[in-house]
Write a structure and sequence with these properties.
mainly alpha; Arc Repressor Mutant, subunit A; two-stranded antiparallel sheet; 7% strand
Length: 116
């Protein structure tokens, strides 16, 4: 995860940018299923953001099923690169849609109509 693209001038919240970069790392095979993630404080230092920003991003990815939190074992990658790639595309779609005034519910409705 050394090639990180955070843009503090971007309107996208930093935690979502951090989550996007971790998704990308999983999709690109830089972080493999079963692999332990670095400590949040270490990630924050590398990324140049607050530790709470990293923790929020990690919780977001846990809720998506890409990361697993285990007491005493830290945070490990749970998802597959394929899932990460799809989630990265969904994230890009949502960013695109929001920039054009659409809400999450609007995009979900569009997808449901498309798939039937």
């Amino acid at each position: 995860m050394m090639d990180v693209n955070l843009d503090k001038a971007d309107a996208t919240p930093l935690y979502l940018q951090v989550a996007r970069e971790i998704r990308r790392a999983i999709a690109d095979g830089e972080a493999l299923p079963g692999e332990r993630m670095p400590l949040a404080k270490d990630l924050a230092t590398v990324l140049g953001v607050n530790k709470n920003t990293v923790l929020r991003a990690l919780r977001e990815l846990r809720d998506e099923g890409l990361l697993e939190f285990r007491r005493g074992r830290g945070i490990t990658v749970a998802g597959t690169p394929e899932r990460g790639a799809v989630l990265a595309m969904v994230d890009d779609l949502m960013t695109f849609a929001r920039s054009r005034g659409y809400k999450s519910e609007d995009v979900i409705s569009m997808i449901q109509k498309t798939v039937g």
